[in-house]
Amino acid sequence: MNTESLGSIFLNSVLINNFVLSLFLGICPFLGISGKRDTAFRMGVAVTFVLVVTATSAYGVHRVLVYFDALYLELIAYIAVIASSVQLVEMFIKRVSPALFRALGIYLPLITTNCAVLGLALFQTARAYNFLQSLVFAVGSGLGFTLALVIMAGMREELSLAKVPNIVQGTALTLILAGILSLAFMGFGGLGG
Amino acid sequence: MRQETLTAAAAPEIGLDTFLDGIWKENPTFVTVLGMCPLLAVSNSVQNALAMALATMFVLVMSNMAVSLVRNVIPSQVRLVAFIMIIATFVTVAEYLLQAISLELHRALGAFVPLIVVNCIILGRAEAFASKNPVIPSILDGLGTSMGFLLAIFTMGAVREILGSGSFLGFPLFGDNFEPWVVMILPSGGFFVLGVLMLGVNRLNAWLKAETR
What we know:
The complex is a heterodimer of chains A (193) and B (213). Chain A is built from nine helices and no strands. With 193 residues, chain A is mainly α. Chain A is globular and about 60 Å long. Chain B is globular. Chain B has 213 residues and is mostly helical. Chain B has one domain. In chain B, a hairpin with a 2-residue loop joins strand 1 (167-168) and strand 2. Helix content of chain B is 70%, strand content 2%. The longest helix of chain B is centred in the last third of the chain and has 31 residues, at 135-165.
């Protein structure tokens, strides 16, 4: 059993061990969908939502697998749970709020193959978080992901007006920006106890 | 670039070209920009990079083969789920294999071995190639694509280890006076090195285009 306090888990997942900038999870949407600030924000909200659902169900699945002594099935079970919970979330949002569904659009199904989601399930198992700790970890990671995505989108919006050489444009420029941003986030390292 | 990938997938040439395309013309990292997470995360030393590349190669080749074998049996509505299940099975095998071969390496790679499941390169090749082609070309495609990935992650690992720790595969290269660039083995170094590599590849491709014209 892990005895890390909830506040420390939260701070760790939002700033110090930011999923995108220091653990390299969820780089694909980070590079792909960080062009505009409002789409970046929506993507962040969608991912946070899925993270919370996944954390809850992965916790249950882990308990069941431990009970049946079938831990070798963990990976397969997690990915199946993630794929189906994304599908469920999609149907739920469509039914409850069609406006939000339209806003999230194509991003929802794509989240299935986002490594941040499977990463979260694996980390919470490896660190033996209890149910409440897992929930806080999920919310914190989602916030951290949103934060990184929105900051990046803001930077890219400003840069779209700047003159840069042709060969640097696109992914190369985004990656170098991400490097600088990641360097800045390292400054939060001192916060951890 | 995207256009090229699509047409190539629609009318694949069987044989050596299937293998070679994956290495340069359709390099998973530099051209289609897939599989960024493991590329950035475990390229802080040559050893980690090679282990990751080999694990990915095993999973990609095996899953391409399996997907190609069952391609006519699986209804198209559930094909993605079926592909992911096949991939997850081989990743579990790869994880246990790595754990048996070297516990130390297994610890160093951490969560990134199970995360091969969500590496978009593998699902991408299953969907774009193996689900439409016979077994032998699918295996060749898997080998070629994973060689392309190996090339990219090995280059990253070499640059980051040489500059960041002043060694190659653990052997020190420079004398005691070498001051390591610590930033290179930190996360931000991964972004910088990949950004600069992308820049170089763009420049090279622009030059090649001008040359053929």
